[in-house]
């Protein structure tokens, strides 16, 4: 049997995609993987009711909650500690189908493929005919502490990097949510920066300035800080 046709060992991860691969255009992505009908903060709180591990809202919803300025949302992002991924799988798997998104690969997160990267995400939908409702990027941890995936060596207690809003839900601090977008140059990320940065207090601006300077000294947002 040729190497090209030799099957991968059972349970092994798929090979990383070629370096020449690019993100699929929206229409192609929808054709292969389906579309989104995401939860919102009120409904994600109900969805997660009974999950006894820490979780918090990240991304654009975390920024909007701080600014109070409405923005469009393509999905709903929450995060959990990577060590709680299996607990989350068991929590949703009776009624939902969790999938693992890792380096451009999407495959079931079930009893066959339980080992997943702490840097990957879990996507959730009801079944193969349903839209995706939730994206759960995992947060690597260090002895139960939150770690910054975008800045090596930075960690903190979870209570220091999240806050509980008036809706009773926990959100990632806004300056951290924006920092997580610094490698992207989408219109919505630039708009988030223009709305959020003037609303940050001194401590938040200092944190964002220090973090950006450490990983991307020439970043355009530094001029506003």
Can you give keywords for this protein?
disordered N terminus; 29% helix; 225 residues; six-stranded mixed β-sheet; alpha+beta
What does the model show?
The chain is an alpha+beta fold and 225 residues long. The chain contains 8 helices and 11 strands. The radius of gyration is 18 Å and the shape is globular.
Estimated structural class: alpha+beta
Q: What helical percentage do the residues reach?
A: 25-40%
- What is the count of DSSP helices, taking H or I runs of 4+ residues? 8
Proportion of residues in β-strands: 15-25%
Summarize the helices and strands and which ones pair or pack.
Elements: H1 26-33, H2 41-47, E1 55-57, H3 59-67, E2 78-81, H4 85-92, E3 97-102, E4 105-108, E5 121-125, E6 132-139, E7 141-142, E8 145-147, E9 155-156, H5 158-161, E10 162-164, E11 170-172, H6 174-179, H7 187-196, H8 202-215
Parallel strand pairs: 2-6
Antiparallel strand pairs: 1-2, 3-4, 3-5, 5-6, 7-8, 8-9, 10-11
A few lines on this structure:
The protein has 225 residues and is of the alpha+beta class.
């Amino acid at each position: 049997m040729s190497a090209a046709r030799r099957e991968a060992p059972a349970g092994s991860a798929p090979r990383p995609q070629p370096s020449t691969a690019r993100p699929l255009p929206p229409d192609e992505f929808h054709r292969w993987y389906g579309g989104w009908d995401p939860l919102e903060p009120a409904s994600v709180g109900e969805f997660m009711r009974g999950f006894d591990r820490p979780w918090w809202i990240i991304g654009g919803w975390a920024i909007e909650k701080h600014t109070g300025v409405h923005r469009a949302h393509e999905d709903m992002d929450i995060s959990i500690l990577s060590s709680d991924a299996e607990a989350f799988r068991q929590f949703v798997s009776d009624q939902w189908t969790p999938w693992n998104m890792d380096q451009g690969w999407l495959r079931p997160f079930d009893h066959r493929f339980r080992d997943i990267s702490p840097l990957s995400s879990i996507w959730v939908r009801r079944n193969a005919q349903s839209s995706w409702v939730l994206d759960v990027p995992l947060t690597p941890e260090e002895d139960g502490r939150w770690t910054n995936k975008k800045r090596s060596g930075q960690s903190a207690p979870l209570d220091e990097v999240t806050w509980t809003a008036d809706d009773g839900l926990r959100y990632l601090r806004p300056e951290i949510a924006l920092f997580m977008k610094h490698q992207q140059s989408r219109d919505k990320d630039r708009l988030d920066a223009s709305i959020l940065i003037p609303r940050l207090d001194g401590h938040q601006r200092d944190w964002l300035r220090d973090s950006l300077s450490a990983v991307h000294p020439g970043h355009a947002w530094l001029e506003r800080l």
